[in-house]
Specification:
homodimer; TIM Barrel; 8-stranded parallel beta barrel; 4Fe-4S (chains A, B); phosphomethylpyrimidine synthase activity (chains A, B); metal-binding (chains A, B)
Chain lengths: 620, 620
């Protein structure tokens, strides 16, 4: 279903996700997705969180060359604390034209010359700043509406779960969002220059979010496929997208991505800064780095990964490791520190960086440059040394009301995952944790979306606010379109498993709706309620392609003679007819005997109306 | 690499797994796989547990029509407690020739007319019986050798992990195996009529095992593909295989599978019994069921799933559920109980079943017929009512020295998984737990190998001895060859993650070897050490196909200019050269300053010999 944009041949996937329709809720028209079930079922439609933006709205016109509508612009201007100004001029080196390779230039985004916004002198645009002054912004209202999915039906559900100290409310009010942002327990990434972004929150008391990484490298990938990957990843549920491009055309590629993204975009500015100095880390300077921050802030990047915790004294700690430093940003800074026998300029100039962040409301994603890259290195001295420094920097950022989240590992065996979460909460004052996996074993390259999905579900349960996806290509190559989808769906299910275990009041609605559909052989509803309806139906059709099978009360697993689901319905009918109190497993012989007689009688009366149909196979 | 067996066109995959060679260790010639690393690396070969049997041994001749060599036959005869006898005659209904469909007959296994073995009058062939009399059998010796993988290098490893009360020894002795089997904490499934089976142990103090389900249904699949799936599943690591065939040809299909299987085979006898009565559950009788047990015991089935815990008084409890009874065996017995207003004949005749089990050493896999089929039904009254009955039956089986394991759920959210393990340990006296998943959410059909892999890794960590795989087709269709491989590899990595977290002394050897290879850019070693070398190399080659890239010190993720691994080596060299004590993160300013100066000096001396190469990309 790819619309090819004739002008630039940038094609993206549009159209509704199978079985659901886009709705806009409340005065702010918060975008959600509604899955309508079979009319005969008498089941209400199920509302699900929707990250896909206008691309799944049949009423929206998509023109990649124009970008998305500036949803938040009026809100920003109404606050009266911003000013338009002439942007920093785009330099050749912004697109990596310093290096030997001058090929592969991409066209600049047509309307890229617009005037950016920034805070008026002395002003602070961060959502945290508004929150701390008691102001409830439209962004906070949008988030509240968005997070309340399914809670209208809450009365039907008893709270059930273990949240390890989280404070998930029954219902999310704008005031609750404001308070969480004010405390620093949640962030709403929202660069003033990314008005196309639909507000979302990252925090342990909200739905667990996931991030998808895209970006070209000097070896592979190009502009069109990166824009397509961004749209593709949000279609399947990516809450934020990081553009990790290196090599050429970094500036222009990013512009195309941001202008077309309804979700927050994150970057690692040190990558581009390094390109600007020809890849020689020791030639990096504060001036070049600061200029790169301004450049990206003007484009609208919503959060920056800053590896300010890689301090010179920690670098030697990495020498004891099996796999040293696996973070690119971390290794770049480690090298700079060694080369200059100086403390990291990111650490020393941290408050100056914060000044830039608050002028645009760019959120910090404090990078864990010393995270472990193998099971052997998990939870070591280098990792925790950096974590405590990130805690110190969090407080420095908060002192200027700038939003912060903390990046986490990495490779960690299951028994060491909880310690990561506990130390992070303690060291960083409940600032949102944003982890990569963690991978729970090193021995399955090609399946690291799963080795890490296991760790991601667990750390999400313990309190991590956002999970950075890992694709099957991790450690092996750059993810293609299919890898991106598998990575996103894997992380969506891990995040959902975490929400269920935390006892999020809205989470189980969808599981229950799908299980009920499964029990009642509503195959289409089962497909449509799943995270990936296309794949579910395709798998079903591989054995029973006939259209009739979609309504058949059996499936290929057991064939038309075995059916556990069918008989369960009969058991239920029995119990209903006899309506005798259900017996417990400590039933006495007498009670049992009575139950047997009663049931058998009903059975005889029912004309032995039992037979084994066919249904759900689960290993026996 | 499929050898087509011309006579019967049953093709199976043979030949070594890439990068490794079959070895036979010790006086019993215990089969293992050895992965040889690059000569230049100076790394020793890595021994891994091998379930693939003779199919991966270039020196073995494979003839599907003859079956495998009877490895254990001499051990059995030497014990002097067995007798050969004329087998029960194969009846038409054994192959389901009662029903309307008389098509699709498969050829009987050529040598199927051999005379089976059973215990002489009054004798008991179970490994538990030998163990309790203090006898260490060759089977126990085989298991001990097999479980000690990598422990020769143990001295290099400190024990590290949380085993939740397991008693994993540093080194496995035959006496330890005997003791575990005698206590009922481990089983060695080993039907006297399956001498082709390579002994293996299932117990929480041994490596976590996985099971793969195969089997045709009346709707799909055939003999050749089932035999192929069995061989394919053990190639990738299935420790046992369950033949869940229904429909026609059950007897002959099973014979072909058992005669060619080097791993224990499990079945659910009630499936075949039901076929014998034309699919009408209420027509099932004890006589037909008992006859089916004999039939399958003579063929060599190593463990039977028996749903004797589905008692009549519990059936109404399922009426309160979202998805009722999802176990086919459970629903069949529930229906029988209701129809006859009688207690289950499996429960009432349990001790008679046990008499049959011990005459052939068939192990019980007590089925959880009332396991939850949805998040909503997890940990409910019906489930735990049955569990406590399974505990009672365990003790009755143990009273006759018959081996037992307990089947477990199903669909369980993460916060309710641990309770399952704890209740099972308490109710069943540490009899091995054998769980299906559990699936941690219901909303991802098409990805249930992952929703369940998350739960499997956790419950394996808590103490489950064997994990029953779930494939991507779960709930949607019958798994094909590719689904079987994905399911097996997913469960192998989940089981390994559990071994790591439990602190199994041998587990981390492989992770460390692979991570070291990754750090040193030994791409081939990285592929060969992985659970699926073919897929790992294929993914790598999708972006960098050139042969040279296999030795390149960079990869496609970051391109030739970024490299965290490379710089880490440089950091290590620095630390080594300066050999100053590594500083901790509470380093004082003075210490830090000193470190900086020292390092910078080395750097200048080294001729600024640092540059950023390319390496491992992990999200930043």
């Amino acid at each position: 279903m790819a619309d090819i944009n004739s002008k630039l041949e940038i094609g993206v996937t549009t159209g509704p996700i199978r079985g659901s329709k886009k709705i806009h809720v409340g005065p702010l028209g918060v975008a959600m997705r509604e899955i309508h079930l079979e009319p005969g079922s008498g089941e209400p439609p199920v509302r699900v969180y929707d990250t896909s933006g206008p691309y799944t709205d049949p009423n929206a016109t998509i023109d990649i060359a124009s970008g998305l509508a500036p949803l938040r612009r009026d809100w920003q201007l109404a606050r009266g604390d911003v000013e338009e100004y002439a942007p920093r001029e785009v330099k050749p080196e912004d697109n990596g034209q310093l290096g030997p390779d001058r090929s592969g230039g991409v066209p600049p985004f047509p309307t890229a010359l617009r005037r950016p916004l920034r805070a008026k002198a002395g002003m602070n645009l961060s959502q945290m700043h508004y929150a701390r002054r008691g102001i409830i912004t439209p962004e906070m209202e949008y988030v509240a509406e968005r997070e309340n999915l399914g809670r209208a039906r809450l009365t039907e559900y008893k709270r059930d779960g273990e949240s390890f100290g989280a404070s998930i409310p029954d219902y999310v009010t704008p005031e609750f969002v404001r308070d969480e942002v004010a405390r620093g327990r949640a962030i709403i990434p929202s660069n003033v220059n990314h008005p196309e972004c639909e507000p979302m929150a990252i925090g342990r008391n909200f739905l667990v979010k996931i991030n998808a990484n895209i970006g070209n490298s000097a070896v592979a990938s190009d502009l069109a496929s990166e824009v397509d990957k961004m749209v593709w990843s949000i279609r399947w549920g990516a809450d934020t997208v990081m553009d990790l491009s290196t090599g050429r055309n970094i500036h222009d590629t990013r512009e195309w991505i941001i202008r077309n993204s309804p979700v927050p975009i994150g970057t690692v500015p040190i990558y581009q800064a390094l390109e600007k100095v020809g890849g020689v880390a020791e030639d990096l300077t504060w001036e070049i780095f600061a200029d790169t921050l301004i450049e990206q802030a003007e484009q609208g990047v919503d959060y920056f990964t800053i590896h300010a915790g890689v301090r010179l004294p920690y670098v030697p700690l990495a020498a004891k490791r099996m796999t040293g430093i696996v973070s690119r940003g971390g290794s770049i800074m480690a090298k700079w520190c060694l080369a200059h026998h100086k403390e990291s300029f990111l650490y020393e100039r941290f408050d100056e960086i914060t000044e830039i962040m608050k002028a645009y409301d760019v959120a910090y994603s404090l990078g864990d440059g010393l995270r472990p890259g193998s099971i052997y290195d998990a939870n070591d001295e280098a990792q925790f040394a950096e974590l405590y420094t990130l805690g110190e920097l969090t407080k420095r950022a908060w002192a200027q009301d700038v939003q912060v989240m903390i990046e986490g590992p990495g490779h960690v065996p299951m028994h060491k995952i909880k310690e990561n979460m506990e130390k992070q909460l303690e060291a960083c004052g409940e600032a949102p944790f944003y982890t990569l996996g963690p991978l729970t074993t090193d021995i399955a390259p090609g399946y690291d979306h799963i080795t890490s999905g296991i760790g991601a579900a667990q750390i999400g349960w313990y309190g991590t606010a956002m999970l950075c996806y890992v694709t099957p290509k991790e450690h092996l190559g750059l993810p293609d379109r299919d890898d991106v989808k598998v990575g996103v769906v894997t992380y969506k299910l891990a995040a959902h498993a975490a929400d269920l275990a935390k006892g999020h009041p809205a989470a189980q609605v969808r599981d229950d709706a799908l299980s009920k559909a499964r029990f009642e052989f509503r195959w289409r509803d089962q497909f449509n309620l799943s995270l990936d309806p296309d794949t579910a139906e395709q798998y079903h059709d591989q054995t029973l392609p006939a259209e009739g099978a979609k309504s058949a009360h059996f499936c290929s697993m057991c064939g038309p003679k075995f059916c556990s689901m069918k008989i369960s319905q009969e058991v239920r009918d029995f119990a209903a007819k006899q309506n005798q109190p259900v017996q417990t497993f400590i039933a006495s012989e007498e009670e049992a005997e009575a139950g047997m007689k009663a049931m058998s009688q009903k059975y005889e009366e029912g004309g032995r109306e039992l037979y084994i149909g066919a249904g759900n196979r689960e290993h026996d």
